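Sample pair:
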Amino acid sequence: MATIRIPTPLRKYTQGKEEVQIAGATVQAVIEALEHSHPGIRERILDEHGKVRRFVNVFVGDEDIRFLENLQTPVAERDEISIIPAIAGG
């Protein structure tokens, strides 16, 4: 199973856990499984069209999925997936 790193604002959906273990062959499958285990989290990651929200970044290892195969990016058994909300300010 892949390790999913959960950012602080989304930990209320994972009962405060910083990391969860989720199986899935692609990032999309992992997010769907994450939603099944932790209802409500998907809508914080994906928009109403099923795309990664504009101000959310998802990484498999050190690679942004937007520069890979987006939600169809393959996920290996021991991959680490990081969900990182963008921070704006000035």
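Residues 57 and 84 are 5 Å apart (CA to CA).
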